[in-house]
Amino acid sequence: MASQVHSLAKKVWNYHLLNDQLEKSDCIFVLCSNDIRVAEHAAKLYLDGYAPYIVFSGGVGELTSGMFSGSEAEAFALVAADMGVPKESILIEPQSTNTGENILFTKALLEEKGLDPTTLILVQKPFMERRTYATFMQQWPVKQVMVTSPPISFDEYPNELITYSDVINVMVGDLQRIKEYPVLGYSMPQDIPDDVWQAFESLVELGFNEHLINSQ
């Protein structure tokens, strides 16, 4: 059973990864969460010269309630500053509670600051790369984007904050959202290969249904 779950989960994990090749861009746009490793990855990109500033976007979500002293964006910004990113190169959007709001609220913040980036590097958790891309292209389609995440494998990803089971539940839920959200206007459609969807259905049957948006 364990080997079956692992095989199915790896198939879904690999589907979520876009493996974009990064190029220097106008802006690094970080979709914040409970995973500080995303902030560290974004800070390294800035320090390596990939963009002149970073936007951290995220309020307080279900998974981060009580985790940080303030918003996710403020917590991530502190990590970046501690790693050497100048505070004047950091923008903070501390209100958003979902991916669509991350994009719309950040767009408004940049407009307020007189910034109009043409190319953006989106920084997210590995298993949310594809949905982040699909949502961005629906909400702000005139921009050129690349998506990246901390270079951590599926087997190495679980830690003291997110268990192996948590990872599978969340990425199964994200795959369902990739399929269903385009109909609601939240994101652009993505092709889902038959074997990936079969893996989704098998994992749901095995009990990985905690992050689904409706009962299966």
Automatic annotation (TrEMBL):
Residues 26-144 form the DUF218 domain. Pfam families: DUF218. GO terms for cellular component: plasma membrane. CDD domains: YdcF-like. PANTHER family: DUF218 DOMAIN-CONTAINING PROTEIN (PTHR30336:SF20), INNER MEMBRANE PROTEIN, PROBABLE PERMEASE (PTHR30336). This is DUF218 domain-containing protein.
